[in-house]
Amino acid sequence: MTQSQTSLSQAELENQLKAIVGEDKVRTDADSLETFGKDWTKIYPPNPSAIVFPKTTEQVQAIVKFANEHQVALVPSGGRTGLSAGAVAANGEVVVSFDYMNNISGFNDMDKTVRCGAGVITEQLQNYAEEQGLFYPVDFASAGSSQIGGNIGTNAGGIKVIRYGMTRDWVAGLTVVTGKGDILELNKDLVKNNTGYDMRQLFIGGEGTLGFVTEATMRLTRPAKNLTVLVLGVPEFEAIMSVLNTFQTNIDLTAFEFFSDKAMRKVVARGDVPAPFETEAEYYALLEFEAETEGHIDQAMELFEKCMEEGWVLDGVMSQSETQAQNLWRLREDISETIAEWTPYKNDISVVVSKVPPFLREIEEIVTREYPDFEIIWFGHIGDGNLHLNILKPDDLAKEIFFEQCAKVSTWVFEIVEKYQGSVSAEHGVGMTKKAYLKYTRSEAEIDYMRAVKAVFDPNNIMNPGKLIDMK
Q: How far, in Å, CA of 146 to CA of 81, rounded?
């Protein structure tokens, strides 16, 4: 269902939305429609009919009830940093922006929880936690613009998953408005609540297709102490797994990332961050751990020396200050921004950690064989089996032809994903870009159950229609 199916005129639509949220909280100017109608993807051009900015859960409820009555499709909009077109309004939908629902309240020092509006920016929550002497550990490159509601809708992961898990592990409770217009208070912030279905989990990762999250109680934890970073150069990918196993067996890691030499060269070429050491390597591993005592540093050095003796590591560097640690992190964190100028075709895939080496090898072999002129950039959260495959567009190839050829690559890649029982979307969600490939991770029976769940919560299919799954 799209806005074009409503019988309302554009003027009637605007007037009724203004009656709910106020004159100044509805926008239809070209710049706003362009800005709020899209996310970071560039495949689908934005085409919303209006942008509405509610300030309360009750206003969201009124918008949803109005949408049901007049057959108006709604698309949620947070920080618009998504990479799967889950927040793109391409078919005349009304965009519901949560920018004004950005209050932090209800901090509970005993429970280590805080209440956040859906529009609270991730970094805003991180800074608030720090002010309380605590830590919100879900972290990623878009923390400065992504919003908590969007993080919940996509179950965002990031760079600390190996230690702290995904967004869902930090959601104590939710307030949601369902597609029927009901307000539900889910889980009531309880740690233990064994009273049937945990509907909170349906909305986490649901991409706004069942209803909209308006508030969330988020758990906080103690801050890590003296975080120390190691960057190691390794001769082959299998060696990364040996390094991971060696360190993870002996040290509680807060992060374990990897990136290819090709990826690092792109970052270093910008001139902002130096190479970590002179020795060249095919791949690099970045480890982070808490060094609370000199003993922890000594233990890490012993493990590093063992890896050198085994031939798994060619060279390495350990941060000696917070500034150096930040610069070492930039070798990994700056990759996405750096390669953007090559119009990368991105795949965000995962398998269980033990299957990563043959999985990566098969994918690289088929892409290199079929498209020898395409440059492949690998990086990812190797500690949790999440790989980011980036194929860079050759300068002399038109974007349309490049994406057409990469669509064939995706089919081959996802066939390998299916073979290894992995996921076609490890952390970016499904949206529209991965919807056609959902069958490689979910069975037909599962997808039918997903449709049935959506039909219960959103019988008129007004909540982010066309994303995640298509209704029959």
A: 6
8 Å CB contact between 286 and 318 = no
What three-state secondary structure class fits 63?
Answer: helix
Give the CA count within 13 Å in the CB-facing half-sphere of 384: 22
From residue 153, give the alpha-carbon distance in Å to each of 30, 218, 344, 440.
27, 14, 25, 21
Q: In terms of pTM, does the model score above 0.85?
A: yes
Residue 3 has pLDDT above 60, yes or no: no
The amino acid occupying position 190 is L
Q: In angstroms, rounded to a whole number, what is the distance separating the alpha carbons of residues 429 and 39?
A: 13
The two structure tokens encoding residue 334: 């700056």
Domains of the chain in start order, with CATH, are 3-100 (3.30.43.10), 104-219 (3.30.465.10), 227-336 (3.30.70.2190), 343-440 (3.30.70.2740)
Average per-residue pLDDT for the chain? 95
In 3-state terms the chain splits into helix, strand, coil percentages (rounded to 5) of 40, 20, 40
> In angstroms, what CA-CA distances link 275 with 112, 196, 231, 325?
40, 53, 10, 13
Burial (Cβ within 10 Å: 0-12, 13-18, ≥19) of residue 297: middle
Name the phi and psi angles at 425, rounded to 5.
Answer: -145, 100
What confidence tens digit (pLDDT) does each residue in 26-68 have?
Answer: 999 999 999 999 998 878 999 999 999 999 999 999 999 999 9
Using DSSP bridges, classify how beta strands 253-260 and 375-381 pair: parallel, antiparallel or unpaired.
antiparallel
- Here the tokens at position 276 are 């970590």
